[in-house]
From TrEMBL:
Signal peptide extent: none
Matches recorded under InterPro entries: ASIL1/2-like, Myb_DNA-bind_4
Region feature (Disordered): 116-145
Biased composition (Polar residues): 117-126
Source taxon at top rank: Eukaryota
Protein name: Myb/SANT-like DNA-binding domain-containing protein
Record domain Myb/SANT-like DNA-binding: where: 16-103
Coiled-coil annotated residue ranges, if any: none
A Pfam family matched in the record: Myb_DNA-bind_4
Lineage: Eukaryota, Viridiplantae, Streptophyta, Embryophyta, Tracheophyta
């Protein structure tokens, strides 16, 4: 007869293509930045550095999002394993090869559990993970509030900068419009002045032409009169001489 095999409950492990070596490299790269950041959540550029470290060592093509998701899965698995070790009071040793590495990173962070370790349903496992998250408690929430406050302050500063830039642009536009109107006014005045001067010159030329025409007519009219007077004088002289001779 075949012996009955008792299966142990499966741990919540993501079914993806991560091997133990890949995961170990990921934890190493992530753990360094996690400790350097005083156990705070990594920024996006830190996750990109973690992905680059994994890809360069194992010739993979992991993204920063995939690395973050994998770390979340590993953390959940560690919480369950840590709870099992704590509840067994030293009788259970985790067979997971990465447990000691993660335990060194987290220390006693997940030792206190608000519920006994579940063994069956997924719903109960989720309760365990929620209880483990509660052990992070106020410090994590405080850090999150601080981060949200920093983001809100940055957005507010950005809004103030944008408002100042817009006000400055409006002032510059008003100044440019004033300069344009002043230039148009000066140009119009200059044009009117040129028109007036041109009209005056034309009037002067017309008066000069009229004066010259009048003088010419007067000269032409006076020439026959002088000639007539001269001929009359000559006639009278001739008559006088004739009377003298008779």
């Amino acid at each position: 007869m075949a012996e009955a095999v008792t299966e142990t409950p499966s741990l919540p492990v993501r079914e993806d293509c991560w091997s133990e070596d890949d995961t170990a490299t990921l934890i190493e790269a992530w753990g360094e930045r996690y400790l350097d950041g005083n156990r705070r959540n990594l920024r996006q550029h830190h996750w990109q550095e973690v992905a680059d470290a994994v890809n360069n060592r194992h010739e993979l093509f992991r993204t920063d999002i995939q690395c973050k998701n994998r770390i979340d899965t590993v953390k959940k698995k560690y919480k369950v394993e840590k709870a099992r070790v704590s509840e067994s009071k030293g009788t259970y040793v985790s067979p997971w090869s990465l447990f000691q590495t993660l335990d060194g990173l987290f220390g006693s962070k997940f030792t206190k559990m608000s519920r006994p370790l579940p063994q069956t349903t997924t719903t109960t496992k989720r309760q365990v993970w929620a209880a483990a998250e509660d052990t992070e408690g106020p410090s994590v929430r405080k850090r999150e509030r601080e981060e949200y406050g920093e983001v809100a302050a940055s957005i507010e500063r950005l809004g103030e900068i944008y408002e100042r830039v817009e006000r400055r642009k409006q002032r510059e536009m008003v100044g440019l419009e004033k300069q344009r109107m002043r230039f148009v006014k000066e140009l119009e005045c200059h044009r009117m002045k040129m028109l007036v001067e041109s009209e005056l010159q034309i009037q002067k030329m017309k008066r000069a032409a009229a004066t010259a025409t009048t003088d010419t007519k007067r000269s032409s009219a006076s020439a026959p009169t002088a000639l007539t007077s001269f001929m009359t004088y000559c006639f009278l002289i001739n008559r006088g001489l004739a009377n003298f001779l008779i």
